[in-house]
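Reminder to self: C-alpha cells first, then the designed residues, so the page reads top to bottom the way the pipeline ran.
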C-alpha cells in the first residue's frame, strides 16, 4: 500500500515525502525497517527518530529535523491501530461445516458460517450469520449465538447461554459453568444446583482461560462493549456494566454489580454482593470488600519496594498497637 493511499485512508497530511513507497508492514520505532510504518506516541522517543529506518512515521505534528516521510494525524496511536487492521486482514474462512463436527437435533445455522473439526453443537442451538467456530469447541443445548461471533479453539459454552453480536471468545474460556455454591448438611458440603443462565451482550471480548459462571436461578450478565482479559473469574449472578475493562487475574465473587466504564486492574479481588459504581477505577492487587461509589479511583495494593526496607517497615507495623497505647 502506497504512503499516499495510507494518508488518504487516515485523513492525514503528508510531510517531507521524497518517494511514494510501498508500505508492507507496521512496526515499532525500535524494529522499523524499510517498507514499514511506525508511529510516535511519546515525545520522549524523539531522540530515537534519527536512528530509525522506517519508510514513514505517523506523528501528531510535523518534525522538522528528521529525514523521514511523516503522515500527520490527530492521534498517531489510534491511527496506527486502524492501519494494522488494514495491513493485516483476518484470514477469510469460507462457508464450511467439517464432517467431523457433531451437530445435534433441531440446530439452526445461519449463512456463511465456518464450523471446524471436532466441534460439538448440542440440540436446539441457534447460530446466526458469519459465525466462526474453531476446532474442539463445545456449544451446549438451547444456546443462542447471534451474528459475526468468533469462538477460538477449545471454547466451552454450557447450555442455555446467550451470545450477542460480534462477540469474540478466546481459547480455553468456559462460559456458564456452575457457580461455586454449596450448603452444609450432616457436616458435609452439598452442591447447590445452578439453573440460571449467562448472557453475553454485543461487542464483548473474553480472553483465554476466563470463566464466567452460570447464575443460581437468574442471569449472569456481561453488558455490551465490555472487554475481559485472560484468566479472569466472574462468579454467579454477577452483572458487569457496559464498556468496562477487567484486566488479567481479576476475581469477582458471586452476586456483584459492576457499573459502566469500570476498570479493574490486574489481580483485583472483589468480595461477594459488592456494588461498584460507574466510572470507577480500582488499582492492581486491591481487595474490594465494601461498596465503591461512582466516579473515583480506589486502591490498596502495595507497590514493590526494596526488601530490606520493607522488613524494617514490618517491624514498625507489628509494634503499632504498643505505640498507640503509649
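Designed residues (326 positions):
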Amino acid at each position: 500500500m502506497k504512503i499516499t493511499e495510507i494518508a488518504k485512508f487516515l485523513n492525514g497530511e503528508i510531510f517531507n515525502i521524497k518517494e511514494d513507497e510501498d508500505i508492507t508492514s507496521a512496526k515499532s520505532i525500535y524494529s522499523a525497517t524499510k517498507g514499514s510504518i511506525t508511529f510516535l506516541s511519546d515525545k520522549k522517543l524523539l531522540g530515537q527518530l534519527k536512528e530509525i529506518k522506517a519508510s514513514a512515521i505517523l506523528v501528531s505534528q510535523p518534525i522538522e529535523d528528521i529525514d523521514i516521510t511523516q503522515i500527520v494525524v490527530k492521534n498517531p496511536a489510534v491511527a496506527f491501530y486502524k492501519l494494522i487492521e488494514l495491513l493485516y486482514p483476518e484470514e477469510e474462512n469460507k462457508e464450511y461445516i467439517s464432517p467431523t463436527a457433531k451437530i445435534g437435533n433441531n440446530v439452526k445455522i445461519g449463512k456463511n458460517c465456518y464450523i471446524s473439526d471436532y466441534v460439538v453443537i448440542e440440540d436446539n442451538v441457534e447460530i446466526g450469520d458469519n459465525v466462526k467456530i474453531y476446532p474442539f469447541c463445545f456449544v451446549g443445548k438451547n444456546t443462542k449465538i447471534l451474528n459475526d461471533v468468533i469462538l477460538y479453539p477449545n471454547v466451552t459454552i454450557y447450555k442455555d447461554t446467550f451470545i450477542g453480536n460480534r462477540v469474540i471468545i478466546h481459547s480455553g474460556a468456559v462460559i456458564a459453568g456452575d457457580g461455586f455454591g454449596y450448603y452444609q448438611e450432616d457436616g458435609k458440603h452439598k452442591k447447590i444446583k445452578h439453573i440460571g443462565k449467562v448472557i453475553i451482550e454485543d461487542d464483548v471480548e473474553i480472553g483465554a482461560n476466563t470463566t464466567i459462571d452460570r447464575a443460581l436461578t437468574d442471569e449472569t450478565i456481561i453488558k455490551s462493549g465490555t472487554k475481559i482479559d485472560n484468566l479472569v473469574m466472574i462468579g454467579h449472578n454477577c452483572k458487569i456494566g457496559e464498556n468496562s475493562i477487567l484486566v488479567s487475574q481479576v476475581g469477582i465473587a458471586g452476586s456483584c454489580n459492576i457499573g459502566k466504564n469500570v476498570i479493574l486492574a490486574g489481580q483485583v479481588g472483589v468480595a461477594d454482593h459488592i456494588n461498584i459504581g460507574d466510572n470507577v477505577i480500582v488499582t492492581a492487587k486491591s481487595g474490594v470488600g465494601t461498596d465503591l461509589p461512582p466516579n473515583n479511583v480506589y486502591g490498596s495494593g502495595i507497590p514493590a519496594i526494596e526488601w530490606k526496607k520493607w522488613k524494617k517497615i514490618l517491624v514498625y507495623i507489628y509494634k503499632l498497637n504498643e505505640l498507640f497505647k503509649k
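The chain has two domains: 3-87, 155-298.
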